[in-house]
Amino acid sequence: MDPSAPKYFTIIDYVIFALLLVASMSIGLHYAFTGGRQSTTREFLFADRSMKCLPLSLSLMATFQSAVAVIGTPAEVYTNGTQYWFIGCSYILGLLIPAHIFIPVFYRLHLTSVYQYLELRFCKAVRICGTVTFIFQMVIYVGVGIYTPALALNAVTGFHLWGAVLATGLVCTLYTALGGLKAVVWTDVFQTLVMFTGQLAVIIVGVQQAGGLSETWVKVRDGGRISGLDLNPDPTVRHTFWTLGVGGVFLMLSLYGVNQAQVQRYLSSRTEKEAVMSCYMVFPCLQVALMLSCLMGLVMYACYGNNSPLEQQYITSKDQMVLYFVMDMLQNFPGLPGLFVACLFSASLSTISSALNSLATVTIMDLIKPHCSMTEARATLLSKMLAVSYGIICLAMAYVVHLMNSSVLQAALSIFGMVGGPLLGLFCLGIFFPCANSIGAVTGLAAGLLISFWVGIGGFLSRMSSSVVPPFNSTNTVAAGPDNITIIDAASRPVGLHGFYSLSYMWYSALNSSTVVLIGLIISFMTGRTKGDDVASGTVYPVMRTARSLLHKLVEPSACCTSHPRHKIDGHKEINGNVKEDAGTQEETETFLPSNPVSHVEQETTV
Questions:
Q1: Is 493 strand, coil or helix?
Q2: What sections of 10-83 are H helices per DSSP?
Q3: pTM of the complete model
Q4: How many CB atoms are located within 10 Å of the residue 211 CB?
Q5: What pLDDT score was predicted for residue 607?
Q6: Among candidates 229, 243, 190, which has minimal Cα distance to 508?
Q7: pLDDT digit string, tens, across residues 386-444
Q8: Contact predicate 212/465, CB 8 Å
Q9: 132/106 Cα distance (integer angstroms)
């Protein structure tokens, strides 16, 4: 078969793909007409706070892995080797910190939106700024999520690109608006299983096509695709251990610590313990997803070697490589291409549905309800209408993504670094620094966003203007036995403003969040620091007391073996049923809630 000839689905492929859509829609319809029929905002937006940790963990993983990982990561590994795999190291701290700091703070405050915290800690203006920033971030990201599978469908089936965009957006919008968060979570579970099945099937058949496991290993090793540990500290190098393992921690915190789509799932848990457990269980799920995506890239290289379909002009974009591989190498296995595209479509649907649900939540809870009194039935109807409206807006954003001259993976992670980083910094400013005030928070967020777009857009324009030469933000690698040696050409090293623009996109979150904290603290001290009595109870994490407690356990390990204290970070412990405060700084003791506090929502002016 001519490798450049168009490749299309068989009837079996279409049947498998259609079954995915029918199953996803059925789940949405099931939760629309059972239980409470999504008649309250508590049920529609928070699943009646009744979700268990296992489905939540799969939903948490699916929300931001999606089609970006299924398409982007294998293409990245095929092109540049397995260096990207080291991002898995960032998952450890990137999930432990949310589990032990962010989740207890947010859950004990009984929040309805993560940005409600900003009003409790600072003021209403900070809450509105955070909400608007999040809406901007998610609308752009969903544009990537909608466009990715549409591009795949167009590449493998000849289906019209924008027809595929409409199909993706409308199907997802419909079941999200009908079934609420329960439908979103359980479709995520189903779609995650489809995603893993599709990837695993392609890997198994691909290895067989490449000549077996041993032959596959020899090819990727001799081709220099097994990367060694690159400890180059240069922040302008696109992927090194430091950019992925350290810079990736800040990216993970912005996703799994303070993003409304994820926090909303934590808040829908039955108990705080289950919310923490769901965060723990995300770790193995993410590692499996990363492993499957990287293995797909290696299998692709074992089959094609250096004869890239992109260089042979069989495809027009690096992000079409995965689908081309599926249709080219697996054409003799009817149904397998349909299964993989169903896997890709599943990944995309999980991201879009989560985003639409969270966008509806923050809009109704942060922007509308505080200013307009309405009945529960009217608020629920408005939430559903908002989900539909955001679906339409995100369809329009997909066209903007189409115009971007960047890989899907880098575009998606850049968006979260540019916008998620400042939001992470804003929450860290409030949770870890009792002295920070509202003026410092707003100024710090503005400074973080300014730096973010300056570096991000400046880097994008710099790469466009230098497209005829090797890009600044890259490394030259040559094979040297089983390992890769990174060679940095001193003459081509960017300097001055170009060096600033050439910062690896994996450092965006770290740079921007640090900017928010630093500027926020400086302005807070200049305008009058917040005193302990003025900080709302439960909004500050007791850093010093927790550090002393950990140090005490390390110095006296025997104490850990003779007592079994209840897990706490709130400065309270139960003794014979009575609550007694631990010793700690006055500010920390007065600003953190016990594990079962009275809701602090009534502290707000209008919510």
A1: coil
A2: 11-32, 41-46, 53-67, 73-80
A3: 0.82
A4: 13
A5: 32
A6: 243
A7: 988 998 888 888 877 776 655 554 565 566 667 888 999 999 999 999 999 999 999 99
A8: no
A9: 20
Nearest to 591 by CA among 545, 525, 522, 526: 545
Neighbours of 468 (CB within 10 A): 5
| C-alpha torsion angle, residues 436, 92, 107, 575 (rounded to 10) | -100
Q: How many residues appear in the chain?
A: 607
CA angle 105–110–113, rounded 5-degree value: 90
Q: Which residues are paired to 483 by β-bridges?
A: 480
Q: At 199, give phi and psi (nearest 5°).
A: -65, -45
- 366, 371, 373, 377 alpha-carbon torsion, rounded to 10°: -30
Question: Which residues make Cβ contacts (< 8 Å) with residue 235, sequence separation at least 6?
Answer: 242, 243, 503, 504, 507
Q: Is 576 left (phi over 0), alpha (psi -120 to 50) or beta?
A: left
Nearest CA to 195 out of 372, 345, 84, 31 is that of: 345
Q: How many Cβ atoms are within 10 Å of 231's Cβ, its own excluded?
A: 9
Q: Are 155 and 324 in contact (CB under 8 A)?
A: yes
CB atoms within 10 A of CB 402: 14
Give the residue from 566, 576, 572, 567 showing the smallest Cα distance to 597: 572
As a whole number of angstroms, the distance between CA 293 and CA 203 comes to: 9
The string of pLDDT tens digits covering residues 34-93 is 766 677 778 888 888 888 888 999 989 888 776 777 888 898 899 889 999 999 999 999
Q: Which residues pair with 575 in a beta bridge?
A: 578
CA dihedral 308, 310, 315, 318 (to 10 degrees): 110
Per-residue pLDDT of 475-514, as tens digits, reads: 333 333 333 333 444 445 666 667 777 888 889 889 999 9
Burial 495-521 (b: 16+ CB within 10 A, else e): eeebebbbbbbbbbbbbbbbbbbebbb
Determine how many CB atoms are found less than 10 A away from the CB of residue 89: 15
User: Dihedrals φ, ψ of 387, to 5°?
Assistant: -60, -40
In whole angstroms, how far apart are CA 2 and each of 35, 80, 207, 328, 331?
54, 27, 22, 9, 12
Say how many Å lie between the first and final Cα of the chain, rounded. Answer: 64
CA dihedral 432, 93, 448, 69 (to 10 degrees): -150
What Cα–Cα distance (Å) separates residue 574 from each residue in 268, 274, 292, 543, 557? Answer: 26, 21, 45, 21, 22
With vertex at residue 428, the alpha carbon angle to CA 348 and CA 282, rounded to the nearest 5 degrees, is 35
d(CA 414, CA 509): 9
The torsion angles phi and psi of 579, rounded to 5 degrees, stand at -95, 130
